[in-house]
Design a protein that fits this description.
Elements (H helix, E strand, L loop, with lengths): L1 E2 L9 E3 L1 H14 L2 E5 L10 E4 L9 E10 L5 E9 H7 L2 E9 L13 E9 L2 H4 L13
Parallel strand pairs: 2-7, 3-6
Antiparallel strand pairs: 1-5, 3-4, 5-6, 7-8
Length: 143
């Protein structure tokens, strides 16, 4: 994902290949998507996936990343990842990896009917990331 937090040159969000595959299926059904992480304090929290624009964001939210999701045929679809500003205060020292697991998703999240849920896994930002030197890692879609 491209960095979007002002003053940073690294991505705070990545997706596993399982999450990307599900996102591609959801884009096929619903068009462009967005994610919003509004609750949860730690690993195991579930971000919500919506059709792009169905969840209204504003000054109370932080755009943590943007990615162009690769689609069949060589096209892409935009995807933004948002977090409530209040939640970001707790997670500001972490890098998030969005995974996909079996189980019921939360509320109106688009993956719920498939018997899946997106899951947030986190790690502390490394010294290079904190210094703004850039993110490393082996995540499938990252900045």
């Amino acid at each position: 994902m491209a960095p979007t937090v002002e003053g940073e040159d690294f991505s705070r969000v990545a997706f596993t290949s399982a999450a990307v595959t599900q996102i591609q299926r959801l884009i096929d059904r619903n068009g462009p998507l967005m994610f919003h992480q509004s609750g949860g304090c730690c690993d195991g929290s579930s971000p919500m996936c919506f059709p792009e624009g169905d969840f209204i964001t504003g000054d109370a939210d932080v755009k943590m990343g943007h990615v162009e999701v690769p689609l069949p045929g060589g096209t892409t679809s935009p995807l933004d990842f948002w977090m409530s500003r209040e939640q970001f205060a707790y997670w500001r020292h972490t890098h998030l990896t969005i995974d996909l697991v079996d189980g019921r998703g939360g509320g109106f999240s688009l993956e719920t009917p498939d018997g899946k849920r997106f899951l947030t896994r986190s790690r502390m930002l490394g010294d290079r990331e904190v210094a703004g030197a850039g993110a490393g890692g082996a995540d499938d879609i990252a900045g």
